[in-house]
Amino acid sequence: MTNYGLSSILESKKAYRKKLAQMPIGKKLLLIEQMRERDLTIAKSRTGLAEKLISSKDNLA
Questions:
Q1: Would you say 28 and 20 are in contact if contact means Cβ atoms under 8 Å apart?
Q2: Is residue 32 part of a domain?
Q3: pLDDT of res. 58
Q4: pLDDT digits (tens, 9 = 90+) for 4-57
Q5: How many domains does the chain have?
């Protein structure tokens, strides 16, 4: 198992933020769009899971 220290995590975050800051605006907008699509996919899967759980409870009653 890898041991991650807080200092290495913070350094990694700092480096990633610097990388994002240097990125062209068009690429940043593309990343935002990809995150939105991912968020919608996750939301849809959670909705489906919730519906399955509700229907399985109804079947037990």
A1: yes
A2: yes
A3: 65
A4: 799 999 999 999 999 999 999 999 999 999 999 999 888 888 877 777 777 776
A5: 1
Looking at the domain assignment, is residue 54 inside a domain?
yes
Domain annotation covers residue 56: yes
Return phi, psi of residue 7, to 5°.
-65, -40
What token pair was written down for 33?
A: 């769009």
Residue 6 lies in a domain: no
For residue 36, which amino acid is it?
A: R
Question: Is pTM, for the whole model, over 0.90?
Answer: no
Which residues are CB-neighbours of 41 under 8 A, at least 6 positions away?
A: none
